[in-house]
Amino acid sequence: QVQLVESGGGSVQAGGSLRLSCAAFGYTYSTYCMGWFRQAPGKEREGAAFISTGDSTTYYADSVKGRFTISQDNAKNTLYLQMNSLKPEDTAMYYCAASYFPCGIQLPEDFNFWGQGTQVTVSS
């Protein structure tokens, strides 16, 4: 089992920055892909950024490419999402997720473990 605990959400004005953290506990060596999904009210959960835990290859949704950076600190078993140039449309609950499978299409159903979520609100 893997437990994921997110932190770092909050409220920021458009153009601002936030850094999300996701601390992983348990059998973290068994996961091959970790990432961040987000879900706005009334919308489906969508993938934002992912990283292959073995070689740190990163994957980004077009909507966040160039503004968000995903990274991992293996010594601390922690995943990060640096979010810059935030827009009101980035407002959502952000969830950390981990998968037994390699990063692929990155659909929610491909992920085995989820954090509780952290709210990000961007005002215009």
In summary, what is this structure?
This protein has no helices and 11 strands.
Please specify the SSE layout and strand pairing.
Blueprint: E1 2-7, E2 10-13, E3 18-26, E4 33-39, E5 46-52, E6 58-60, E7 68-73, E8 78-83, E9 92-99, E10 113-114, E11 118-123
Parallel strand pairs: 2-11
Antiparallel strand pairs: 1-3, 3-8, 4-5, 4-9, 5-6, 7-8, 9-10, 9-11
Name its key features:
4-stranded antiparallel beta sheet, 124 residues, globular, mainly beta
Explained architecture:
The structure is a single chain. The model has no long low-confidence stretch (mean pLDDT 94). It is built from no helices and 11 strands. The protein has strands at 2-7, 10-13, 18-26, 33-39, 46-52, 58-60, 68-73, 78-83, 92-99, 113-114, 118-123. With 124 residues, it is an all-beta fold.
Structural class: mainly beta
Distance from first to last alpha carbon: 40 Å
Order of helices and strands: EEEEEEEEEEE
Average pLDDT number: 94
- Counted beta strands: 11
